[in-house]
Write a structure and sequence with these properties.
With 123 residues, the protein is of the alpha+beta class. It has 5 helices and 3 strands.
C-alpha cells in the first residue's frame, strides 16, 4: 500500500478526540437518566448516524465518569423487564460538561480558522 493511502486509512479509522465520548455521554444525561444501549442510540440519532459508539468504548467511558463522580448509577428494570444499570449526570458532571463544551468550542474555532483562512478576522 502506498504510504499516502496508508496514512489516509489510519486517519479514517481514528477514534474521536480525547474526551469527546465522555462529553457526549454527559450531554445525553442532561435529558434524563439512561442505560448504555439508550446512550448509544441517542448519540447515533443525534449525529444522523455519523457516530456509532461501540460497547468496548462506551462502558469504559461510563466507568471513568463514575469513578470521577461525574455520573451516578442505579440498577433498575427496563421496559422489557431486564435488569439494567442507568446512569445520571451529577452536579459535578454538569460543571465539567460546561467546561468541556467551552474548551471544545474554542478548539473548534481555532481549527476552523486554520482550515478556512479567509474567515480569519483581525482583533
Amino acid at each position: 500500500m502506498p504510504i499516502v493511502n496508508k496514512v489516509m486509512a489510519e486517519a479514517n479509522s481514528r477514534d474521536l478526540f480525547p474526551g469527546a465520548l465522555e462529553m457526549m455521554i454527559l450531554e445525553s444525561h442532561i435529558r434524563e437518566p439512561a442505560h448504555g444501549y439508550a446512550l448509544v442510540q441517542h448519540i447515533q440519532q443525534r449525529s444522523n448516524s455519523l457516530l456509532q459508539v461501540e460497547e468496548g468504548s462506551l462502558y469504559p467511558a461510563l466507568q471513568r465518569l463514575l469513578k470521577a463522580k461525574l455520573v451516578k448509577a442505579e440498577w433498575e428494570l427496563s421496559s422489557t423487564n431486564r435488569r439494567v444499570r442507568t446512569y445520571q449526570i451529577t452536579a459535578a458532571g454538569l460543571r465539567r460538561l460546561e467546561q468541556q463544551i467551552s474548551s471544545f468550542e474554542r478548539m473548534f474555532e481555532g481549527i476552523s480558522l486554520v482550515l478556512n483562512p479567509g474567515r480569519a478576522t483581525t482583533s
